[in-house]
Structures are given as structure tokens and as C-alpha cells.
Amino acid sequence: MTDATRDEEIAEEQRYLDRVYARLAQLRESAAEAEKAGYGIAAVGNFGAYVERDAMVFHAARRRRALDAEHEGLVFGRLDFGPDASTGIDVSNVEPAVPGGEVRYIGRLGLRDERYETVVVDWRAPAAAPFYRATPADPLGVVRRRTIRSSDEQIVDISDDLLDPGIAPKGMAVVGDGALLASLVRATGRGMRDIVATIQREQDEAIRSPASGVTVVRGGPGTGKTAVALHRAAYLLYADRHRFESGGVLVVGPSEVFVSYVSRVLPSLGEDAVSLRSLGQLVVGHAATRHDPPEAAAIKGSLRMSRLLRRAARDTAPSAPDQLRLLYRGQLLTLDQRSIDAARRAVLSSGGRRNAVRPKAAGYLLDALWHQSVELLAPHRRQERTEFASDIAERREFITFMHSWWPRLRPIDVLGWLADHTRVERYGAGLLTPAEIDTLAGAYTSLADAGPSVADIALLDELGELLGERTRRVRPPRDPFHVMDGVREVTTYADRMAATRAAAAERPEDYRDYAHIVVDESQDVSPMQWRMIGRRGPHASWTVVGDPAQSAWPDPAEAARAMRAALGSRHRHDHALTTNYRNSAEIFELAAQVIRRAEPQIELPTAVRRGGVPPRHQLVTAEMLPQAARDAVAELIAEVEGTVGVITAMDAAEEVRAWLAGPLPDRLQVVGSLQAKGMEYDGVIVVDPARIRDEGDSGVRTLYVALSRATQRLLTVGTRDSWLPTSPGGGPTSGAESC
Fold first, then answer.
1. Domain spans of the chain?
2. Is residue 687 within 8 Å of residue 625, measured between CB atoms?
3. Residue 536 to residues 253, 354, 515, 532: CA-CA distances in angstroms?
């Protein structure tokens, strides 16, 4: 295909794109005029005119907002169908490339012209499905699929896939090497690549899976799991907006870095009604980013912690008094340690939540004191139980005792008790080994200073359930009719409609009734975290995506049981993604060798492209490692146009950041090995790979993740080469250098 042909095809598509944007401008102008006309109706002055005005203004403003949101990259695809696939929805005033066939343009928003004929098909509509699902083996009537890449309103490139050469007319222009592979060699940018134009068939089938039940998507690195999850959220909102917008969609990712990385994808798809949270952000009032050492994280994530926390939630508070003494009508009423402990156990034996049964606990003590007074006082000096309770309950010494003995506990308070080794021994009896008790107690010695870890967030949520109190931030009520200081609109139909929609979108911070929940990187969700996520959607449908080969959780069977408990008996739809589109074959071959060295039977995806640049490895002394890391960063920054990621062991991340201190480009990011989950960079430097491999029992899986983050270039710099798979000759893999 000559450059002249490419230019001619781009010019033809540009003429159509100009028409689309002209129509978009007309629709914006019409919406603005309708809004203006709506206000003019009010001049009639009667009640009906005001109602009509409000309805017109509201719907016109809503339409204008939708049109404004989808300007950039509005049209990204074209389908040319053969004559047998004609449906009558082809766009107007466009000559079909295949005689007797039809043309469909695919975009982020559906548009029609003045005659109500299709101009652009919304990517989520059924008519757009062949753009993603058609293959040479099953073209679905598509002869040519064209991907259109534009900047603002200007087309910068096109790429074609010829799916049915037998029907293609002689001389049909076919430009480029296919949309997907072309997109893979482009720089990724700071946020996750929006793959709406390059979704492939197996991905599209998962995206359009039935909305009910549980959709489980499994796939290795680079198979597009995260993109599938996010596009599925957008598709569900499009397909059943009332259900999923009113109930809400929650997307849970593994880390705050990951959430920031993908945060721009859904708005670019036209959806801003989705809540994005990391596992460390699901409990109100906490935003944990700190990770525990693997040994402590394994204990905190185990289901044994639910039983341990139940014991803790029922225990005596550290500041609780050991007796209650009251002088009543000349007699000393006393409840000793044994009596008040028995009272506490009796009150909690029925399964009541501690904070919720505080009045019951007070009543139990008052009963015990009253019975004691009956025994000590003469009959004529005794009071009825009600009068006695009223008298004692108002005394300062009783109120003070209750505040100390049965304080209103916060989850973070009880979690702090675990820093006491003696308490952990008591709570963990029969659940934890002596070594695990030492590890768990030691993990909480820094809680007051460092705050909770990511694993602690699930424990705080568990304690919130046990104590009967969830942390809620109180927001001041917002006046939906406030215009500016001193100006407040009167209540109208449009006001009420807008206020209702705002109220629906502005859910409580501790919202727990989502209509759909998406869990990404599910293989790393601990059993306790599954319990936490499950509480957010007891009636929700689910999308769960992950890769067992990347799992960092030491007991997959326990995590699987917890996942099944969270999902319930909902019907499952399983999808497997088998093609690695991210990594070049050279890069993924190294990652595959590393993981297969430890787990020979593991199933891995297939990388579909070769980049021509194998990974490079540098072996240095410990003293030279900081400078070698700086040199590697400078090298990759010069070699690739897009993002560069520096991945190191979790406990070395801050140290490596310090090595690179100084004026660094925005496209450079330093992350710990666990924070690299779900990330993608054009170039990657893995610092000290052997140290990542040694991070606990699942270290080799974590290293596999780190080695599979790069799309174009991979460099490793380390002090040991023991992590490298061996070549057939027994030496280190080619590309290794020593300094």
C-alpha cells in the first residue's frame, strides 16, 4: 500500500469526520436553543408554562452535557459489510466499499442526521459488536474493518483488517498491519490505554456477557483483563442504565497506584457513575498504602482472623475497671471482677454487637445491684426495681464506670489491642501457632505511628460488623437549589428532577448496596478481603478477573472458598483470555521461563508479536547498584517515548526512589513489586530481581508479574543472577552482562 493511497483514504475519512463534527455542532446548538426556548415559555405566566419550561430546560441541558463529553476521538472505527449482511442501518451519503453492501461508523456516542439516519453507531450497541467480534474465520459479514485514530477533530492514521478477501472487490484499499498490533507499539501514556477501538473477539464476548450472575474472566499478562473489566462496566451502564446507575457500580483494584492508572478509562468511554476503590480504600476514613511483610499479611488475610477478631471484640477494654462500688442508703453495693466479667459474657452471648447492646449491659448491672440491695436493706428501705434503676443510672459514679467498662469502641481501637502480646495469645489460642502469635503482635507495634496496612482494612471492616458501628463521615447537607451567595432558586419540576438525580449519584460514603461489583487482580484478594468486598453488594451481580499464575496469596484453596462465599450461588459465566497482546514475544518468553522453572505445568497465554529487542540483564556489585539503576533509567527514557516503570522489591521501593531523586520526567514511575499488579509501561527496569523472587513463598509469581509489565523494552539490574533461567548450554540467558 503506497503512501498516496493511505493519504487518499485518510482524506476520505476526514471528509466524513468533518460531517460528523458538523452534525455534533448542530445538535449542540439545537440543545442550547431548546434550553433558551424553554426559559422563554415562562413568559406565558401560567402554571402549565412553568412545568413545560422546566421539562424542556432539564432535558436540553442533559443532552448538551452528553454531546460535550464525547468530543475527542468521537469516531474510531468503520465496518464495510458485504451484500449478504445488509441490515438497512448503513450511514447516509456514503458509497459502500463493497457493491450492494453497507457501511457503519463506530464511535463513543450514537448520532443521527436530520433525516434520523445513522451517522455513528455507539460502540456498546449490538450493531457495533462485529467491530470487536469479527475474525477471518468468522467475519460476521464484515469484509473490511478499519480503525481510525484521530487527535481532536483531525484524523492522524487509519489501519485495516481484511477479513473476507473472497468478497472484497478488486482494488479495495487495505491500509496498515491491523489495528491491534499497531496500537501495541504506540506509547501508553500516563493512564491505562483505552482499548475501545482494539477489543478482540474473546474480550468482547466477556464484555457483553449476561448482566446477571457472576462473570469470571481469567487470563495471563497482557490479555486485556483490566480493559475487559472496565469496558464491561461501561457496557452494563449502557445496556441497563436505570438498574446500574441507580444501584451503582463498584470497581475494586489491587492498589492506589492501579486505581489512579485506570481512572481515566471510564470517563473516556462516557461513564462517570462508577466508584473506583483500591483494597486499601474500601473502609471510610482510611486510605492504606502500606503493605505488611508476607508472613504477617498471610496471617491477617486468613479466615482464622475472623474468629480471632470475634474474641477480641468481646474482650474487656484495656482501661476497664475491675470492680464497681456504690454507696446506697448507707450500704456499699459492690460488683467484683468476676461479677462484671460474667455480666459482659452474658450480654454478648446472644450474639449482639458490642456497641449496640451497651444499654443492655447497663441494665444487667443495674439488675445485679438491685438484687444486692434487696438482700442488704430492710424491706421498708427497699425500692422497686424501676425506681432503683432510675436513681442509680443517673449517678455520676455509675456513668463514669459505664464509660470505662463499656466504652463505645471504634474498629481501630480494637485493632490496636493486638499490639499486646498477651491479648494475642489469648485470642489466638487454638488458631495460631506461637510463631504466628509473635508475628501478628509484632505487626501492630507501629500501628499508632504508621497507621493501618492494606491487609488491616479488611480487619477494620470485620470489626465494624462485630462492634455494630461503621465509621461514617457526616457531610453537611447540600442545598440543590443554591445558585450563588444570596441567590436560591425556587423549587421547580426541573429542580426536583436534578436534585433527585444528584441524590441518587451522591451515595453514602459507606454505601453497601451496589448493583454490580468488578474485582480486578482477584487472584491476590485474601479471604478476609473477600468478606469485606462481599458486604458491599449482597444483591449485586459480579465481574471477577484475574490470573492464577500471578497469585501472591499462599493458600489459593482458602481464597477460593472465601470467594465462593462472597459470590453466593449466583450463576457463573466463565471466559478465558488466551492471547498476550502487551508483551513482545522476546519479553514474555523470559517471564514464562521464570514462572515455568518453578511451576512447569502452569498455563500461560501466547504472545502474538515480536519486537526484535530481547530483554537485557546487567549484573553489578551492591555498591554499583544505585548508579546502574540510574544509568538504566536514563537509557530507557531515551529509547522509548511512553512510560517507564522501575519495579523493585516492596521493602526497597523507598530506597530506590531515593537513588533516583532529582528532576525526573512525569512519565517515570517507581513502584514496589505488589504495586506493579495490573500496570503497563513501555519500558521497564526491574531492580534486583532476585530480591523480588525472595519475597516470601510466592516471590517467583511476583517476579513473573514484574517481568511482564513492559510493552517494548525490558532491562534488569541486580547483584545476583540466580533468578535467571538457564540457557540450553547451562549458562545464563543471553543478554546478561557483568560489571
1. 3-176, 201-283+510-580, 294-315+412-467, 324-404, 585-738
2. yes
3. 14, 22, 9, 7
Report how far residue 231's alpha carbon sits from residue 229's, in angstroms, rounded to the nearest whole number. 6
Residue 84 confidence (pLDDT): 82
Rounded Cα distance, 347 and 478, in Å = 41
The C-alpha cell 475472623 sits at 306
Q: Which of 224, 222, 190 is nearest to 206 (CA)?
A: 224
With vertex at residue 292, the alpha carbon angle to CA 291 and CA 294, rounded to the nearest 5 degrees, is: 115
Q: Which pLDDT value is given to residue 488?
A: 45
pLDDT digits (tens, 9 = 90+) for 448-499: 999 999 999 999 999 999 998 654 444 444 554 444 444 444 444 444 444 4
CA angle 537, 543, 544 (to 5 degrees): 105
Q: Yes or no: say if 104 and 121 are a contact pair by the CB < 8 Å rule.
A: yes
Amino acid in position 358: R
What is the phi-psi region of residue 362: left when phi exceeds 0, alpha when psi lies from -120 to 50, beta otherwise?
Answer: alpha
Contact between 591 and 564 under an 8 Å Cβ cutoff? The reply is no
Q: How far apart are CA 606 and CA 578, in angstroms?
A: 6
Backbone angles phi, psi at 323, to 5 degrees: -160, 160
Question: pLDDT tens digits, residue range 599-647?
Answer: 888 889 999 888 889 999 999 999 999 999 999 999 999 999 889 999 9
Q: In angstroms, how far is the first alpha carbon of the chain from the final one? A: 47
Rounded CA gap, 50 and 494, in Å? 10
Q: Which residues pair with 370 in a beta bridge?
A: none
Torsional sign, CA 185, 187, 191, 195 = negative
Query: Which is nearest to 106 in space by CA: 225, 188, 13, 171?
Result: 13
What does each C-alpha distance from 492 to 54, 383, 635 come to in angstroms?
7, 61, 62
Best CA proximity match to 112, nearest among 126, 131, 97, 93: 93
Cell (9 digits) for 43: 413568559
What fold, for 201-283+510-580? Rossmann fold (3.40.50)
User: How far apart (Å, rounded) are the C-alpha atoms in residues 438 and 448?
Assistant: 18
> Rounded to an integer, what distance in angstroms lies between the CA atom of residue 688 and that of residue 245?
46
| Long-range own/partner contacts, residues 384-391 (CB < 8 A, 24 or more apart) | 389/363
Distance CA(163)–CA(143), nearest Å, equals 5
Nearest to 645 by CA among 180, 188, 184: 188
User: CA 62 to CA 35: how far, in whole Å?
Assistant: 10
How many CA atoms lie less than 13 Å away from 361 in the CB half-sphere? 29
**What's the angle, vertex CA 689, arms to CA 684 and CA 692, rounded to 5?**
110
- Asked if the domains at 201-283+510-580 and 585-738 fall in one CATH topology, the answer is yes
Residues of the chain scoring pLDDT < 70: 1-2, 31-72, 86-93, 177-199, 264, 266-272, 469-506, 663, 726-739
H helix or E strand, kind and range, residue 386: helix 385-393
Counting beta carbons within 10 angstroms of the beta carbon of residue 317, is it exposed (0 to 12), middle (13 to 18) or buried (19 or more)?
middle
Q: Enter the C-alpha cell of residue 394.
A: 443517673
β pairing state of 736-738 and 616-619: parallel
Question: What does the angle CA 210 – CA 215 – CA 219 come to, to the nearest 5 degrees?
Answer: 130
Does the structural domain 585-738 have CATH classification 3.40.50.300? Answer: yes
Measure Cα distances from 301 to 456, 463, 549 in Å. 9, 14, 19
d(CA 462, CA 412) in angstroms, rounded, equals 11
Q: Which residues neighbour 518 within 8 Å (Cβ) at sequence distance 6 or greater?
A: 229, 230, 232, 233, 249, 250, 251, 252, 542, 543, 544, 545
